Amino acid sequence: MSQDDDSGYEVGYARPPVQTQFKKGQSGNRKGRPKKRDMTAEELLAILDEPVTVVQQGKKRRMQPVEVTLNRVLKDAVSKKNFRSIRYLLELFEEHGVLRVSEESVGGVITLPNTMPWPMAMLMAERFGVPPWTAQEIDGGRTEYLASRSEEQRIEDELIGYPDL
Which domain holds residue 75? Predict the structure, then answer.
């Protein structure tokens, strides 16, 4: 090992020369660690606008990242019945005015009253639309139902004792 000039300090492994050591209270990195730079909106948009290559049905295609993401969410919604994906798509479609509900569309839930037999409530829903119904509509529905019900239905209705019958 070599010795530093006049102090008797031995220079060697893990013992650098005194003149190259940090002075007390002084760091070896005066400027400090460089700050992490935030991406600007333009840089983010440039990344999102850059097409990517994907393989679809065995063929390579260039697509926008947004399109790739929407395809993935749609696939999850349809094939895996992922309700989060379904909700996300419906909200997105509604937000952008893509969903159109036609007047002829069938589906949904109708809550029918339990104060009358189910066949009578269904008959009234077909004739007068969804409840609530007026007293006159209920009277008309009751008359029509009573005229068309079977003896078995009559016995069942009497056993249950529906208030609107």
Answer: 41-95
